[in-house]
Amino acid sequence: MQELPSTTAPHPQTAALQGRLLAGENVVATLEVDLDAHGQFAQGLIALTNARLLAFEPASGTWSDHRLEPGQTLKLSDHGGLAFLELFSADKRLARWRFTLACNPAAVRLVDAFEREQQRLAGDVAVEQDEEGEDSAFDFGEASKPPSTWVLLRLWRFARPYQGQLLLGFALMLGATGATLVSPYLAMPLMDRVLIPFQNGQQIDPSLVTLLLGGLFGAALVSWALGWAKTYLLSLVSERIAADLRTATFEHLLGLSLEYFGNKRTGDLMARIGSETDRISVFLSLHALDFITDVLMLAMTSIILFSIHPGLALATLVPLPFIAWLIHLVRDRLRTGFEKIDRVWGEVTNILADTIPGIRVVKAFAQEKREARRFKEANANNLHVNDRLNKTWSLFTPSVALLTEMGLLVVWGVGIWLIAHQSITVGTLTAFLAYIGRFYGRLDSMSRIVSVTQKAAAGAKRIFDILDHVSNVPDPVNPQPFENVAGAISMQAVNFRYGSRSIIRNLNLDIRPGEMVGLVGHSGSGKSTLVNLICRFYDVTEGGIKVDGVDLRRIKVTDYRRHIGLVLQEPFLFFGTIAENIAYGKPDATRDEIVAAARAAHAHEFILRLAHGYDSLVGERGQGLSGGERQRISIARALLIDPAILILDEATSAVDTETEKEIQRALDNLVKGRTTIAIAHRLSTLRKADRLVVMDRGEIVELGPHDELIAKQGHYWRLWEAQARRVDAEGADDGGLMVVAPNPSAHTVNA
User: Fold this and answer.
1) For burial by CB atoms within 10 Å, which of 174, 364, 551, 636 has the most?
2) pLDDT tens digits for 348-390?
3) 7 Cβ partners below 8 Å, 6+ apart?
4) Burial class, 61, CB count within 10 angstroms (exposed 0-12 / middle 13-18 / buried 19+)
5) How far apart are CA 191 and CA 198, in angstroms?
6) Gap between the terminal Cα atoms of the chain
7) Where are the alpha helices (DSSP H) in 97-181?
8) What is the crossing angle of helices 426-467 and 320-355, to 10°?
C-alpha cells in the first residue's frame, strides 16, 4: 500500500484515505473540494486511484467509492462561479460533486488522469501514471523526480561570463591551500633537529630555529592573504551569478502565458525567486568554495602523506570506504527530503501571500483565528518534515566523526609500532599527525557539505522548473512588423480548450475598424475567454484570429499588446504615485500628457483634491482610493497609450450609479475612434454599441444592434427582460445587478 507523506498542510482526511487503500492500490490524482452536497463551504476530498474513485462527503462525514470500469466518463463543467464534477456510466450518472472555481486547476488534472486510466482499462495505449505537480495539495509518494546533484552544473551558463574571475579565484585557492600545508612539513625538522636533540643535551641552533619559525610565519601570512583575496573575489562572483539567475528567472516568468500562473501560487513563485536564489548564492560563495578547497587539501595531503611514509598513509585511508558508504546512504534521503521541505515552505509562504494582501477581507469576516490556524498547521507540517530530515542528519554527522577518530587511533597505533622498530622518527609521526588532523578535518567538512549540496540542488531544480517551462503563447521566429494599426479583427472557426474543457466552439466574427461591439451572455458563456484570446493571453486551439489581416501568431507579443488598452472590472494599481500609475504603459510620458489623460478620464478633479496631487502615493493595490477613483485612473492609463483596440471588461459593474455615470463619461472619451470590445452585465451600458454579440456555452447565438435583437425576442431579449424584472422587483435602477440567462437546470449555492 502506498505511503502518503505530507508536503503541505495536511488534509483532515489524509490518514483516513491512506487507511482505505487496498494492497497494490496507488493514488493517481487528488482534488480537494471546498463545498459539500448542499453548497455549504466545507472541506471534502476526491481521490483517483488505479482501481477506484474515492470521495469524502463532508456533509455526511462518509466515504463513497466507485470502481473504475471501461466506458465511464468524468465530466467537468461550471456555471455561475461554481464548478461541477460528474461521474457517468454508460447509462446513468453515478456521482456529482460541486466546488468553487478556485479548485478548477486541480479538477482539470483529475479529469485528465481519469481519461488516461480509462485508456489503460480499454487497452488502447500504454499509459504511465501521471505524477501530481508540485503545486498539488497532496503528495502521494514522490511528486516529481528527485533533484539530481548534477543540476548544479547547469548553473555554468550563468557562471560563464565570469570565467576569468573564477580561474583567478581557483589559482588563489590553490596557492592558499598549498601555503597551509607548509606548517606540518616544517614541524619535522623542528622536532627532529631542534627539540629532540635539545632533550638529549645538545644546544639549540638559533639560526635554524629562526629559519623554521620564519617559514611558519611566512606560510601563515601567505595563506591568510591568498585566502582573503580568494574569498572576496569568489564571493563577488557568486553574488553576481545569483543576481543574474534571479533576473533571468523573473524575466522568463514575465514571458510565460497566463495559463502558467493560473496553476501556481504567488507565495511559491516568490519563494523560488527569492529564497532559492539566495540559497544558491550562499552555496556558491561559501560551500562550493569550501568543497573545492577540501578536495584540493585532500589531494595535496594524500600526496605528502604517501611521500613521507606509504604504510602510515594507507592506515590513514582506513575510514574512507565506510564514510563513502554513509554518504551514499544518506544522500538520497537528503535529496528528496530537502525538496519536500521546499514545497512545505512554499505553502507557508503561500498563506502569507494570500492573507496579508487580503487582510481587509480577513478582518471584515472575523477570520483571524481561521487564518492563524491555517498558518499554524502549515508551520507545524514544516516542522514535522524538518524533524524527519534532522533525524537522519543527526545520526550521520556523529557517525563520520566516530569513523575519523577510529582512523586516528589506527594511525597512532601503527606509528608507535614503527617508532619502536626505528622505521620512522618522532618528528615524522608528529608531522603525520598534523597532516592527518587536516585530512580528517577536511573529510568531515566534505561529509557535511552533502547537506548543503542537496539543498542547493533542490533549489536549483525549482528554479530550472521555471526556466525550462515554455510559454504557451510563444513569439514567432520571424515576426511580422505591426504598425499603423487600424483595428480590424477577424475570428475564423475559433475553438479553445482549457484542459479537458471546450470553452469556445467554432466561433466566427468580424469586427470593423472603429466599431464598438458588446459581448453579452450569462456567466460562463465564454465572454472573458474570448477577450483573453483577442489579447493573446492564450492561443486558440483551432482556427485563427487576425488583426488587420495578420494572424496574431505571426506578430511579436509585445508589439501587438502595445496597441491594446485594457480596462478591467477590478483595476490593479501599483504602489507608487498617481502619475506613475497613469504612465505605467508609457513611462516616458510628460506631465502634460499625464494630466491630459486624467482630464479625459474625468480623474483630474479628484486627483487635485489629494494632498500631493499627481505625486500622491497610492497604497498597495490602490488602497486609499475608492473603486470609482481607481477605475478612472485605469481609464487614464489606457487613454495615455492611445490604443487602436480597446477592451472593456465589466468596467462599471463594481461601482454605484453616480460613479458609473462619471466613468461612463470617461469611457465615451476613451472609445472614440477605437475598435472597442466591451463586456457588461448591465445591458443598459451597451446600448451605444454598434453591435451586440450574444454568447451561450462558447458559441455566438445572436448578433446585431440592440433594437433588432429586442425585436427578435430571442436570447438577448430574455436577458433584457430578466434584468428588467429583477430591477423592478428590487426597486432599483440596474445598480450592481448581474444578468443570468433563464436556465431550468441552473444551480444555486446556499449562503
Assistant:
1) 636
2) 777 777 777 677 677 777 778 888 888 888 888 878 877 777 7
3) 138, 139, 143, 340, 343, 344, 347, 381, 385
4) exposed
5) 10
6) 40
7) 104-122, 156-159, 163-180
8) 40
